[in-house]
Amino acid sequence: MGKNNWRDQDRPIFDSQKFGIVVNDPENPGARTIAEPHMANNNAEVTRTATGGMAAGHMPHFIDGSDAMANKGMTISFQHVPSEEDVTFKAFITAFNETFNCDWASETVYGRSDPIHMFKNTQREITLAFNVPAASEGESFENLARVQRLITFLYPSYTTDGSATTGGNQADVTNALTISNSPLVRLRIMNILAARPQIGDADGTVGGGNGGRASEAAVYSTLGTFERHVQDGGGGEWPSTSVGSNTIAGNYHGGLLGIIKNVSVNHNLDNPDHGVFEINQGTILPKMIEVNLTFSAIHEHTLGWFNDGAGSQVFANQLFPYGVNDASRFGEDGFDRTTGVPDPSTLERANNIAREMLTGELDELAEEVEQHDQDIANAEARYAGLFGKARFNKDIRRGRHLNNDYIQSAVRGRATQNLNSATNSALRSAGIDASSSTLDTYRDVGMEDNYEDFIG
Question: Which of 253, 239, 153 shows the shortest CA–CA distance to 195?
Answer without folding.
Answer: 253
